[in-house]
Write a structure and sequence with these properties.
Length: about 325
Protein backbone atom coordinates (compact mmCIF):
# COMPACT_ATOMS: atom_id res chain seq x y z
CA UNK A 1 0.00 0.00 0.00
CA UNK A 2 1.30 3.48 -0.86
CA UNK A 3 2.40 5.67 1.99
CA UNK A 4 0.96 9.14 2.44
CA UNK A 5 3.39 12.04 2.76
CA UNK A 6 3.77 13.03 6.39
CA UNK A 7 2.95 16.52 7.58
CA UNK A 8 6.05 16.91 9.73
CA UNK A 9 9.68 16.58 8.80
CA UNK A 10 10.86 13.01 8.48
CA UNK A 11 14.50 13.75 7.84
CA UNK A 12 16.96 11.70 9.84
CA UNK A 13 19.79 14.00 8.74
CA UNK A 14 19.91 17.54 7.35
CA UNK A 15 19.69 17.90 3.58
CA UNK A 16 22.87 19.36 2.16
CA UNK A 17 22.16 21.74 -0.69
CA UNK A 18 25.33 23.81 -0.91
CA UNK A 19 28.24 22.10 -2.63
CA UNK A 20 31.41 23.28 -4.26
CA UNK A 21 32.01 22.87 -7.97
CA UNK A 22 34.51 20.10 -7.32
CA UNK A 23 32.13 18.29 -4.95
CA UNK A 24 29.30 18.52 -7.50
CA UNK A 25 31.55 17.03 -10.20
CA UNK A 26 32.66 14.19 -7.92
CA UNK A 27 29.09 13.38 -6.87
CA UNK A 28 27.94 13.36 -10.48
CA UNK A 29 30.79 11.03 -11.44
CA UNK A 30 30.16 8.74 -8.45
CA UNK A 31 26.49 8.22 -9.33
CA UNK A 32 27.35 7.67 -13.00
CA UNK A 33 29.98 5.07 -12.18
CA UNK A 34 27.53 3.27 -9.89
CA UNK A 35 24.98 3.14 -12.73
CA UNK A 36 27.59 1.85 -15.15
CA UNK A 37 28.49 -0.89 -12.68
CA UNK A 38 24.84 -1.85 -12.16
CA UNK A 39 24.24 -2.04 -15.91
CA UNK A 40 27.33 -4.15 -16.44
CA UNK A 41 28.44 -2.15 -19.44
CA UNK A 42 29.59 1.23 -20.61
CA UNK A 43 26.32 3.12 -20.70
CA UNK A 44 27.52 6.60 -20.20
CA UNK A 45 26.96 10.07 -18.92
CA UNK A 46 24.97 11.31 -21.90
CA UNK A 47 21.58 9.67 -22.34
CA UNK A 48 20.27 7.94 -25.45
CA UNK A 49 18.74 10.42 -27.87
CA UNK A 50 20.39 13.49 -26.36
CA UNK A 51 21.38 16.05 -28.99
CA UNK A 52 24.33 18.40 -28.69
CA UNK A 53 25.99 21.02 -30.86
CA UNK A 54 29.70 20.74 -31.63
CA UNK A 55 31.83 23.19 -33.57
CA UNK A 56 34.16 22.65 -36.52
CA UNK A 57 35.93 25.82 -37.60
CA UNK A 58 33.04 28.01 -36.56
CA UNK A 59 30.35 25.77 -38.09
CA UNK A 60 27.74 24.08 -35.90
CA UNK A 61 27.29 20.33 -36.33
CA UNK A 62 24.48 18.52 -34.57
CA UNK A 63 25.26 15.21 -32.93
CA UNK A 64 22.89 12.81 -31.20
CA UNK A 65 23.69 9.82 -29.00
CA UNK A 66 22.42 6.64 -30.64
CA UNK A 67 23.35 3.12 -29.53
CA UNK A 68 26.02 4.65 -27.27
CA UNK A 69 27.76 6.36 -30.20
CA UNK A 70 27.70 9.91 -31.49
CA UNK A 71 25.80 10.18 -34.76
CA UNK A 72 26.41 13.36 -36.76
CA UNK A 73 24.04 15.28 -39.03
CA UNK A 74 25.36 14.61 -42.52
CA UNK A 75 23.78 17.82 -43.84
CA UNK A 76 25.68 19.81 -41.20
CA UNK A 77 28.93 18.03 -42.09
CA UNK A 78 28.44 18.89 -45.77
CA UNK A 79 27.67 22.50 -44.92
CA UNK A 80 30.84 22.75 -42.83
CA UNK A 81 33.03 21.21 -45.56
CA UNK A 82 31.61 22.84 -48.68
CA UNK A 83 30.26 26.17 -47.48
CA UNK A 84 27.16 25.48 -49.55
CA UNK A 85 24.10 27.55 -48.73
CA UNK A 86 21.99 24.55 -49.77
CA UNK A 87 23.64 21.60 -48.01
CA UNK A 88 20.44 19.51 -48.13
CA UNK A 89 20.37 19.74 -51.92
CA UNK A 90 24.10 19.00 -52.06
CA UNK A 91 23.50 15.84 -50.00
CA UNK A 92 20.62 14.76 -52.24
CA UNK A 93 22.79 15.19 -55.34
CA UNK A 94 25.71 13.40 -53.70
CA UNK A 95 23.49 10.44 -52.77
CA UNK A 96 22.40 10.08 -56.37
CA UNK A 97 26.03 10.02 -57.51
CA UNK A 98 27.04 7.56 -54.83
CA UNK A 99 24.27 5.16 -55.82
CA UNK A 100 26.22 4.52 -59.03
CA UNK A 101 29.28 3.52 -57.04
CA UNK A 102 29.65 -0.07 -55.92
CA UNK A 103 29.33 -0.45 -52.19
CA UNK A 104 27.20 2.63 -51.55
CA UNK A 105 24.13 0.53 -50.73
CA UNK A 106 26.12 -0.99 -47.88
CA UNK A 107 27.17 2.47 -46.75
CA UNK A 108 23.63 3.78 -47.01
CA UNK A 109 22.43 1.02 -44.67
CA UNK A 110 24.57 2.62 -41.97
CA UNK A 111 22.81 5.98 -42.30
CA UNK A 112 19.81 6.37 -39.99
CA UNK A 113 17.21 9.05 -39.54
CA UNK A 114 17.29 10.54 -36.06
CA UNK A 115 15.33 13.42 -34.49
CA UNK A 116 17.47 16.55 -34.25
CA UNK A 117 16.61 20.15 -33.44
CA UNK A 118 16.11 22.11 -36.68
CA UNK A 119 16.58 25.84 -37.26
CA UNK A 120 12.84 26.39 -36.82
CA UNK A 121 13.05 25.05 -33.26
CA UNK A 122 11.29 21.77 -34.04
CA UNK A 123 12.63 18.23 -33.80
CA UNK A 124 12.91 16.81 -37.31
CA UNK A 125 14.13 13.49 -38.70
CA UNK A 126 17.64 14.01 -40.07
CA UNK A 127 20.12 11.73 -41.84
CA UNK A 128 22.79 10.83 -39.31
CA UNK A 129 25.83 8.57 -39.26
CA UNK A 130 28.51 7.51 -36.82
CA UNK A 131 32.13 8.62 -37.18
CA UNK A 132 33.15 5.66 -39.34
CA UNK A 133 30.35 6.21 -41.86
CA UNK A 134 30.89 9.98 -41.92
CA UNK A 135 34.55 9.31 -42.75
CA UNK A 136 33.43 7.41 -45.83
CA UNK A 137 30.97 10.11 -46.90
CA UNK A 138 33.62 12.80 -46.46
CA UNK A 139 35.92 10.94 -48.86
CA UNK A 140 33.41 11.67 -51.63
CA UNK A 141 33.36 15.43 -50.96
CA UNK A 142 36.07 17.48 -52.72
CA UNK A 143 37.12 19.99 -50.08
CA UNK A 144 40.42 21.27 -48.67
CA UNK A 145 38.80 20.93 -45.24
CA UNK A 146 38.31 17.17 -45.59
CA UNK A 147 41.57 16.13 -43.91
CA UNK A 148 41.28 18.58 -40.98
CA UNK A 149 37.68 17.41 -40.54
CA UNK A 150 38.78 13.77 -40.31
CA UNK A 151 41.23 14.70 -37.56
CA UNK A 152 38.49 16.65 -35.75
CA UNK A 153 36.12 13.69 -36.06
CA UNK A 154 38.71 11.33 -34.60
CA UNK A 155 39.16 13.74 -31.68
CA UNK A 156 35.41 13.80 -30.99
CA UNK A 157 35.35 10.00 -31.01
CA UNK A 158 38.28 9.87 -28.60
CA UNK A 159 36.56 12.34 -26.26
CA UNK A 160 33.53 10.04 -26.21
CA UNK A 161 35.73 7.16 -25.01
CA UNK A 162 37.20 9.45 -22.36
CA UNK A 163 33.73 10.36 -21.10
CA UNK A 164 32.79 6.71 -20.70
CA UNK A 165 35.99 5.97 -18.80
CA UNK A 166 35.83 9.11 -16.65
CA UNK A 167 32.37 10.74 -16.22
CA UNK A 168 33.96 13.84 -14.65
CA UNK A 169 35.26 14.82 -18.08
CA UNK A 170 31.75 15.05 -19.53
CA UNK A 171 30.46 17.35 -16.82
CA UNK A 172 33.55 19.58 -17.07
CA UNK A 173 32.99 19.88 -20.81
CA UNK A 174 29.39 20.84 -20.13
CA UNK A 175 30.60 23.65 -17.87
CA UNK A 176 32.93 24.97 -20.56
CA UNK A 177 30.09 24.84 -23.11
CA UNK A 178 27.85 26.97 -20.88
CA UNK A 179 30.64 29.50 -20.28
CA UNK A 180 31.32 29.68 -24.02
CA UNK A 181 27.65 30.58 -24.52
CA UNK A 182 28.06 33.56 -22.21
CA UNK A 183 26.54 32.27 -18.97
CA UNK A 184 27.99 33.77 -15.79
CA UNK A 185 30.18 31.76 -13.43
CA UNK A 186 27.48 32.00 -10.76
CA UNK A 187 24.85 30.62 -13.13
CA UNK A 188 27.13 27.80 -14.29
CA UNK A 189 27.77 26.77 -10.66
CA UNK A 190 24.02 26.71 -9.99
CA UNK A 191 23.33 24.76 -13.17
CA UNK A 192 26.04 22.24 -12.35
CA UNK A 193 24.49 21.63 -8.94
CA UNK A 194 21.06 20.96 -10.49
CA UNK A 195 22.64 18.54 -12.98
CA UNK A 196 24.12 16.68 -10.03
CA UNK A 197 20.92 16.70 -7.95
CA UNK A 198 18.91 15.50 -10.95
CA UNK A 199 21.39 12.70 -11.59
CA UNK A 200 21.18 11.58 -7.96
CA UNK A 201 17.38 11.71 -7.99
CA UNK A 202 16.92 9.72 -11.22
CA UNK A 203 19.44 7.16 -10.02
CA UNK A 204 17.40 6.78 -6.82
CA UNK A 205 14.22 6.38 -8.85
CA UNK A 206 15.79 3.62 -10.93
CA UNK A 207 16.85 1.76 -7.79
CA UNK A 208 13.29 2.02 -6.46
CA UNK A 209 11.53 0.62 -9.51
CA UNK A 210 10.37 3.82 -11.21
CA UNK A 211 10.43 3.41 -14.98
CA UNK A 212 12.21 5.88 -17.25
CA UNK A 213 10.06 7.80 -19.66
CA UNK A 214 6.47 8.48 -18.66
CA UNK A 215 6.86 7.76 -14.93
CA UNK A 216 9.98 9.95 -14.71
CA UNK A 217 8.06 12.74 -16.49
CA UNK A 218 5.04 12.49 -14.17
CA UNK A 219 7.20 12.62 -11.04
CA UNK A 220 9.21 15.54 -12.44
CA UNK A 221 5.98 17.42 -13.12
CA UNK A 222 4.79 16.64 -9.60
CA UNK A 223 7.90 18.23 -8.10
CA UNK A 224 7.67 21.20 -10.48
CA UNK A 225 3.99 21.79 -9.68
CA UNK A 226 4.70 21.75 -5.95
CA UNK A 227 7.74 24.01 -6.30
CA UNK A 228 6.52 26.63 -8.76
CA UNK A 229 2.74 26.01 -9.06
CA UNK A 230 3.59 25.24 -12.69
CA UNK A 231 4.17 22.02 -14.55
CA UNK A 232 7.27 21.88 -16.76
CA UNK A 233 5.48 22.79 -20.00
CA UNK A 234 3.61 25.63 -18.27
CA UNK A 235 6.91 26.94 -16.90
CA UNK A 236 8.36 26.84 -20.44
CA UNK A 237 5.35 28.66 -21.84
CA UNK A 238 5.69 31.43 -19.25
CA UNK A 239 9.27 31.97 -20.38
CA UNK A 240 8.33 31.92 -24.06
CA UNK A 241 10.23 28.69 -24.70
CA UNK A 242 9.47 26.00 -27.25
CA UNK A 243 8.94 22.36 -26.41
CA UNK A 244 12.44 21.52 -27.64
CA UNK A 245 14.15 23.99 -25.29
CA UNK A 246 15.75 22.82 -22.05
CA UNK A 247 13.90 24.72 -19.32
CA UNK A 248 16.78 24.63 -16.85
CA UNK A 249 19.06 26.37 -19.33
CA UNK A 250 16.71 29.36 -19.04
CA UNK A 251 16.15 29.44 -15.28
CA UNK A 252 17.57 32.10 -12.98
CA UNK A 253 20.00 30.99 -10.23
CA UNK A 254 17.12 31.26 -7.74
CA UNK A 255 14.84 29.05 -9.84
CA UNK A 256 17.69 26.55 -10.15
CA UNK A 257 18.23 26.59 -6.38
CA UNK A 258 14.55 25.86 -5.72
CA UNK A 259 14.57 23.11 -8.34
CA UNK A 260 17.53 21.54 -6.58
CA UNK A 261 15.77 21.85 -3.20
CA UNK A 262 12.69 20.04 -4.53
CA UNK A 263 14.67 17.23 -6.12
CA UNK A 264 17.10 16.75 -3.25
CA UNK A 265 14.24 16.69 -0.75
CA UNK A 266 12.38 14.16 -2.90
CA UNK A 267 15.41 11.87 -3.01
CA UNK A 268 15.86 12.09 0.76
CA UNK A 269 12.15 11.41 1.33
CA UNK A 270 12.35 8.35 -0.89
CA UNK A 271 15.31 7.04 1.11
CA UNK A 272 13.76 7.83 4.51
CA UNK A 273 10.42 6.21 3.62
CA UNK A 274 12.07 3.42 1.60
CA UNK A 275 9.63 4.27 -1.19
CA UNK A 276 9.18 1.48 -3.73
CA UNK A 277 7.48 1.75 -7.10
CA UNK A 278 5.80 4.66 -8.82
CA UNK A 279 3.04 5.51 -6.34
CA UNK A 280 5.18 5.58 -3.20
CA UNK A 281 7.78 7.67 -5.01
CA UNK A 282 5.03 10.02 -6.16
CA UNK A 283 4.21 10.64 -2.50
CA UNK A 284 7.88 11.50 -1.95
CA UNK A 285 7.76 13.84 -4.97
CA UNK A 286 4.67 15.58 -3.58
CA UNK A 287 6.45 16.09 -0.26
CA UNK A 288 9.61 17.35 -1.97
CA UNK A 289 7.65 19.80 -4.08
CA UNK A 290 5.78 21.04 -1.00
CA UNK A 291 9.06 21.81 0.79
CA UNK A 292 10.46 23.74 -2.18
CA UNK A 293 7.11 25.47 -2.77
CA UNK A 294 6.98 26.68 0.82
CA UNK A 295 10.51 28.07 0.43
CA UNK A 296 9.50 29.85 -2.79
CA UNK A 297 6.47 31.47 -1.18
CA UNK A 298 8.59 32.71 1.73
CA UNK A 299 11.14 34.17 -0.69
CA UNK A 300 8.42 35.88 -2.73
CA UNK A 301 6.95 37.37 0.43
CA UNK A 302 10.34 38.81 1.37
CA UNK A 303 11.15 40.06 -2.15
CA UNK A 304 7.69 41.34 -2.94
CA UNK A 305 7.75 39.83 -6.43
CA UNK A 306 7.43 36.38 -8.04
CA UNK A 307 10.40 34.06 -8.42
CA UNK A 308 9.31 32.81 -11.84
CA UNK A 309 9.44 35.48 -14.55
CA UNK A 310 9.36 35.64 -18.35
CA UNK A 311 13.13 36.14 -18.41
CA UNK A 312 15.10 33.63 -20.46
CA UNK A 313 18.49 33.27 -22.14
CA UNK A 314 17.26 33.23 -25.73
CA UNK A 315 19.14 35.55 -28.12
CA UNK A 316 17.49 38.78 -29.13
CA UNK A 317 15.17 41.18 -27.27
CA UNK A 318 13.23 39.78 -24.35
CA UNK A 319 9.45 40.20 -24.09
CA UNK A 320 9.83 41.62 -20.60
CA UNK A 321 13.09 42.71 -19.03
CA UNK A 322 12.91 41.92 -15.32
CA UNK A 323 16.06 41.93 -13.24
CA UNK A 324 16.39 38.55 -11.57
CA UNK A 325 17.81 38.17 -8.07
CA UNK A 326 21.52 37.41 -7.95
Amino acid sequence: MSKKPEESSVYEKPIKLEMSTEEAIQRFAKVTKEEIGQQGGTKAVVTEGETQLVMFRGKEIRQVLHDDEWFFSIVDVIGALTGSDRPSQYWSDLKRKLVENEGFSELYDEIVQLPMLASDGKMRQTDGANAETVFRVVQSIPSPKAQPFKKWLAKVGYERIQEIQDPEIAIKRAMLTYKAKGYSDEWVRSRLQTITSRKELTSEWKKRGVEEGLEFAILSNTISKGTFDLQVEQHKAKKGLKKSHNLRDHMSPLELALTMLGETTTAEMAKTQNAQGFYENKNAAIAGGDVAGSARRNIEKKMGKPVVTKENFLPGPKPEQIKLPD
